[in-house]
Write a structure and sequence with these properties.
Length: about 70
């Protein structure tokens, strides 16, 4: 886990065209080479769900799963 969240580990994600979770902090620290940054996808306008939305989705899936799939998971 420590490696995955280190600058080196995060650069592995960036080299695979995935914006690292620590992107903003790494940009401030000049830890991402410009050529790598240029290859990352545009994430402007991306929105992550709120905790309330995640909780609502979890409830919906949990309660609806047996009906939709026909299987009760215990």
């Amino acid at each position: 886990m420590e490696y995955l969240y280190s600058n080196e580990g995060q650069l592995g994600w960036a080299n695979g065209y995935c914006t690292p979770i620590r992107y903003d902090a790494m940009v401030k620290a000049n830890a991402i080479p410009a050529d790598v940054t240029a290859k990352l996808p545009d994430t402007s306008g991306a929105a992550l769900p709120t905790l309330d939305q995640i909780t609502a989705a979890n409830t919906l899936i949990t309660t609806g799963w047996p009906t939709a799939v026909g299987v009760t998971v215990k």
